[in-house]
Amino acid sequence: MRTRMRTLAVPALILLIFVFVTASTCGCGEPGEKKNTDNSAENGEAQGGGDNGPGGGTTSEVTLYFRYDTPEKSWLAPEKREIDAADPCRAAMAALISGPMPGSSLKPVLPDTVSVLGVALEGGVCTVDLSKEVLTDASKVGAGATSEMLALAAIADTLTGIQGVEKVRLLVEGQQSGMVEGRFVEDFWGHVGLPEFLERNEEVIFKEV
User: Fold this and answer.
1) Percent over 90 (pLDDT), the chain
2) How far is 53 from 186, CA to CA, in rounded Å?
3) 3-state SS assignment for residue 153
4) What is the pLDDT of residue 103?
5) How confident is the model at residue 56 (pLDDT cuts 50, 70, 90)?
6) Measured in Å, how far apart are the chain's first and last C-alpha atoms?
7) For position 10, what pLDDT does the model report?
8) Whole-angstrom Cα distance, residue 182 to residue 174?
9) Which residues of 75-104 are buried (b: 16+ CB within 10 A; e: fewer)?
10) Helix or strand run (H / E) with residue 66
11) pLDDT at residue 140 above 50?
12) Among the listed ranges 38-42, 50-54, 165-169, 176-180, which one has the minimum average pLDDT value?
């Protein structure tokens, strides 16, 4: 009887040792390896560095140009703004449309009802597609010859200040010519007209004497 009990005890002991060894090694990596359950470092790297805007994305500084009236003449004057660095051309256009900062002596150059429908940068040319309100609501910023000239110059001067942009191609509802809401796109506001490309115009930027 004792011999039979010893015979049964040996396999049981072996099984117990096997279970103990398995339990002690389960779930472990290589010796000295620490399992990382915190992904914050990886996520932080993916989000990028630099200054962060309200949405947590990286921002960059851009110079916007708005209307500045003196007793003698109307000019463009610069205003610095932080924008989304991921899509600077689109962000700069949106900021330009939104107008100058509250309390500023500067005036808007585009109606604030305009939407940016599309932006593309290729070969140094930034193509910007704006909604029909840039034509239909022009009276909100004064639709005279000076206002038209300053509006087009403000778009060109703002966007050519962004790296990689040499000139601007402006579209309205995807068109650079033809009718939109009963208006000819190529006429723009009816005085200066819309050229094929807008190029930087330093002559209309106000300079302190």
Assistant:
1) 71
2) 37
3) helix
4) 96
5) low
6) 116
7) 47
8) 15
9) bbbbbebebbbeebbbbbbbbbbebbeeee
10) strand 59-69
11) yes
12) 38-42
Rounded-to-integer distance, Cα 137 and Cα 155, Å? 17
Q: What is the DSSP letter of 92?
A: H
The closest of 71, 68, 138 to 104, measured between CA atoms, is 68
Q: Among 187, 207, 209, which Cα is nearest to 65's?
A: 207
What is residue 54's predicted lDDT score, i.e. its pLDDT? 47
* 165 Cβ contact list (under 8 Å, min separation 6): 89, 121, 124, 125, 126, 159
Whether the per-residue pLDDT at 29 is higher than 60: the answer is no
Helices (H), the chain: 2-25, 40-47, 88-98, 133-136, 145-159
CA gap 97, 109 in Å, rounded: 8
Q: 78 near 105, Cβ under 8 Å?
A: no
Q: What angle do CA 105, 158, 173 make, to 5 degrees?
A: 105
What is the biggest distance separating any 2 CA atoms in the chain, rounded to whole angstroms? 121
Q: Give dist(CA 112, CA 134) in Å, integer.
A: 9
Phi, psi (deg, nearest 5) at residue 103 = 85, -5
| Domain map (residue ranges) of the chain | 59-204
